[in-house]
Write a structure and sequence with these properties.
By secondary structure, this protein is of the alpha+beta class. The protein folds into two domains: 3-140, Sandwich (Jelly Rolls), CATH 2.60.120.280; 149-259, Homeodomain-like (Arc Repressor Mutant, subunit A), CATH 1.10.10.60. It is 42% helix and 22% strand. The strands form two sheets. It has a six-stranded mixed β-sheet with strand order 1-3-8-5-6-11. It has a five-stranded antiparallel β-sheet with strand order 2-9-4-7-10. A hairpin with a 2-residue loop joins strand 5 (47-51) and strand 6 (54-58). Helix 5 crosses helix 6 and helix 8 packs across helix 9. It is globular.
Length: 260
């Protein structure tokens, strides 16, 4: 049974930035919201989040931006090394108004790790205040990286989504799923664009990518991950993975190990 995580409560927001760091076991956090923004970042491990009805994945190298007052819940099926930044309402107005995935630069990663090592939560010294300002500059200039999985509106499309979530390696084509829903593939594609904002193939690729990230974190081989995701060859899987990250799966894994 998964442990229920403690939801943070701050009586008064301590300045513009609050740095939280911890090592956490597998757990879940029930739906909640708070009057500050949050850069949710996992230095080691993978966290799953749902923010305002949109699914996100927070592995190493990617953070998830949670705007103030956004309803969200999350869970982790494995232990986490947790690094996160709470950002005041005033500064949050300079960040996206909607939840999004953000790349984490090596500089930001190093600052978060340094603060965690020294247990700095509210910077007070001149040196730490300067580092906090650099961290903020890094956060404000991060480019969004869209690797989220939106839900559909209709029960019909959600039924297909649930099937694929249970089996990301399902090899059935868009035509097969359209026939299952008693519609043409063109109609199914239009429904995806209208309800998901992306094509059926793009949604499916994002699902595979999310599972690939978690499998890499768990130590699975590239060949096994490719097989489980329904690819006939590892090279086809690598092409998909590089489209999202600019790196091969092994490069991504090695880079993550260096940063821990």
């Amino acid at each position: 049974m998964m442990i229920e995580g403690e939801i943070p409560h701050l009586q008064e927001f301590p300045g513009d930035l609050y740095f939280r760091h911890d090592r956490l076991p597998a757990m879940e956090w029930k739906t909640h919201a708070h009057p500050w923004g949050q850069l949710n970042y996992v230095s080691h491990g993978v966290m799953h989040l749902e923010i305002d009805g949109i699914r996100f994945l927070s592995p190493s190298q990617y953070a998830v931006w949670i705007p103030p007052f956004a309803d969200h819940f999350s869970f982790a099926s494995r232990d986490l090394v947790y690094r996160t930044v709470y950002i005041s309402l005033k500064l949050s107005n300079r960040l996206p108004s909607k939840p999004t995935t953000l790349n984490v630069s090596p500089v930001l990663h190093a600052i978060l790790d340094d603060f965690a090592l020294r247990d700095v939560r509210v910077p007070e010294t001149e040196e730490d205040l300067r580092m906090a300002q650099v961290a903020l500059d890094q956060i404000l200039h991060i480019k969004p990286h869209e690797t989220y999985l939106p839900y559909a509106v209709s029960d019909e499309l959600n039924s297909v989504i649930k099937e694929l979530q249970l089996n990301p390696g399902d090899r059935r084509s868009v035509e097969d799923f359209a026939e299952q829903l008693h519609m043409t593939s063109r109609t199914l594609e239009r429904r995806c664009q209208r309800e998901l904002g992306i094509s059926f193939g793009e949604w499916r690729s994002r699902l595979k990518f999310m599972h690939a990230i978690e499998s890499l974190e768990a130590g699975l081989t590239v060949q096994r991950i490719a097989l489980e995701l329904g690819y006939t060859t590892p090279s086809a899987f690598i092409v998909m993975f590089k489209r999202f990250t600019g790196k091969t799966p092994e490069q991504y894994r090695l880079n993550g190990l260096k940063q821990r």
